[in-house]
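hey m, so remember when u said the tokens were messed up on ur end? i reran from scratch. heres the input so u can diff it against urs
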Amino acid sequence: MKTLIVFPLLTLCLAAAALEAQADTRGDVLGGRVTDVTGRPVADAQVGATALGSGITRSISTDAEGHYRLFFPRTARQYVVLAKRMGFAPVQRTITRRTSGPEEMTIDMQLGGSPLALSMVEVRGESDTPPARASDGRPAVDATVPNPVSEILALKDTLHLSAVQIIGLTDVADSLQTRNTRIYRNIRTLLTKSQEAGDVGQMAGSVAIMLEEASGNTARAVTAAEKLLRPEQWQILPQAIRDLLQDRSADTAKQ
């Protein structure tokens, strides 16, 4: 009779210990919603988060309602969260935990700028309109042009960038911005002319070629940025930025 009692008790103790061990290894959950400046959800936005210290990165695409949810195997003191989508200005936030235990953090992100509208609804201006310029004479930054090197510079405190690295990365970021701003401006001009001709579909092939050129410029800029960083700094970057090199390498291999 004692034996019959001991085994159930032993089973219960082992189960409790397993649950306790599982609870101890629980990590954080980061979730929220990505919207544009008008509050509308942004679907298929890439959201990546990096746990500072461990360097663990998780990424996912938002659903049709702009929601995302990222799971981490253990807790971290801080997370760097980056949300981006082609045609929008990316947004990045650094989140610091407030408790010692696992948390479920709600981090809503609002992307800046407006998407590049192939429907022509949001195209403005004439093709010969000169680009806006900042007060210091430099071309004003087009917030709709993605620039991952600028995102790296925004992490200068986290990465502990040296003055030499900041200067080098700034040059790379400015060069990429100039090249791709010109491409995006040409795309808008082409869209305007297509709308005037009454056939927006005729420019699809040209736009695809231009976007491929912009993608190549971005990949080369990220490659240059990687060479300016130390390996441990590169590993801290959000996965979405590091993936740009992997995606480009895969495309090159296919070619």
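this time it looks ok to me. Confidence is low (pLDDT under 50) at residues 2-7, 17-25, 114-139. if urs says something different then somethings off w ur setup not the seq
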